[in-house]
Amino acid sequence: MQSLSQQNPSSDVPTLEIPGEDETGQYQAGPWLNSPDQWGSLTVINPLDTDATASALLIPEEQPTPSPVPSWDCTDLNGMAWADVGGSLPSPFSVIQQLTGPQILQTELVSSRGEVQPLSPMSEALCQAVDTRQSQREDQVEEIPRQILHIPTALSEYFFTEVIPLYCVWDSKSNIMRSIVENMWQSSGALHHTIQSMAAACLSETFPHLLTIARQEHSLALEYVKNREEFPAQKQALTLAMTFLGHTSSWISPNNLAPDMYRTSCKMLEDMNEGDGNPATSFFAGTMDYWGMLLAYLTDSEESDVPDTTSASQTNLIEPHPYCGISNQIIKVLRSIGLLIFRYRKQMSNIGFMTERHVDIFRDALRHARRLERVLLAHRLPDLSQIQDPGDPQTSLIHMKLMDDAYRHTGLLQLYRVFPDLLIERYAPWDKTNILQPVPETKIPSAEERQVWLTELALHVIKILEEIPFESRTRSAQPFIMVAVSSELVIKSEETSGNGGFACLDQLPLRVSKARKFLASRLAAYTHILPLQKTRAISQLINHIWSALDAGEQHVYWLDMAYQKKLGTMFG
């Protein structure tokens, strides 16, 4: 995600003027873990609704609006018909060009001899008519506001210049997601309406009227996907639109995790059948892995057979994924951990009295967790020389490597929290050099000793994040890690209430306090550049977690708090 100062200045944006209906209310979301049926709640929009057209733009109705969509008969926002302009895209933040007409600079004719001759009656009448028409045009131009935007064009440009860099962990000309959108958005109704929805949602904090447009465009895109009104050659566009719609449903309604869209996207990916080695296949497979990982901790998902996402160029270099970076394999492991934790806690949450069946469930889950722990411990970070540089100056290869390391330690933290037997088997007083090389247990730790160890591991993860500057586009993937470690940042009141204060500046409570401030400040900055309701929900969730910890509650876990407070959203 690139710095806003290097893109269109924010001062250009306030030129939007949208006098439509004042609908800025919260979009009502269904209960957590019970996603609404996306196909049954589509907003039907009349493509010939001229009233909606007039409310969306400040352009006189008698003036046709040029369009960058020459190859398919699609309606834009609120039903405006688009026309071919030869593929040229005007800048959406530019002033409407003033009309110009033929210039009559003289009212006399010059003969071939150099003599000035008066105009004939017919010529004089013609010149007067042209002058009158010219004057009327000039008066008309002066009446048109100079800061008028063609909203669909403005949203499209905003998507390419702002949304994509905010959405990916790196961005450049080699970003295959960007390439697919640039090549197909003008010929795919689903993709066109999807990017309109995403851009409008990102701008809805500043321009509340755009939230209504975001919902309408989201519904229109879903209708296109449902009807599959695309050519066979546009399967990539349709599949990409579906992944966008599902992953960004939380942009419009934070609690909408859209697991049904995930399942539909998996089926669409199978139908693509592009063949192994195709860059698009690898991209979509990695997309489904990342999306599935985020859903696994919050929904009752199922294991799906997604093709191997390992991507290597002809030089055998690792090609970073726009969402996963170089962490494709760790993302898969994190997804398996999420599926295991969700199902295990769901099965064990309603136990009144223990039975042998419950014991079997526990043993099976523990064996599975132990296998996943071994995979994480055996994972080796790649050398920088093994990674293909995507050419994004804001996201270096070191940033991606640090994210891979943070993902791995976050996975271990989840396993040791939910399955404390794994930590007991390897327990020794905290030493970060032994995190990935466990020594035989030296003692059976108490509950307090286990908590201190987990807190130290959480602080270690945050130290990794601190090495990544906020300007790095990997910030779009960091909220998941921040939430997952937040419930281990425990500050015991008895450790800070003594008269002597902190024994030393490195004392655990002080380091935990600093870590909390770092997470809070980074999330606040992220909310500023991506002002969505879901980013505020993430901050609210972390604040609830810390309030519960400070109140002395025991066994506070971020997934439980997300369920209790109905703040489960897409944390990436």
From TrEMBL:
GO terms for cellular component: nucleus. Its main location: nucleus. It is found in: Nucleus. GO terms for biological process: positive regulation of transcription by RNA polymerase II. Keywords: Nucleus. It comes from the Eukaryota. Coiled coil: none annotated. InterPro entries: Fun_TF. One of its GO terms (molecular function) is transcription cis-regulatory region binding. Residues 1-35 are annotated as: Disordered. This is C6 zinc finger domain protein.
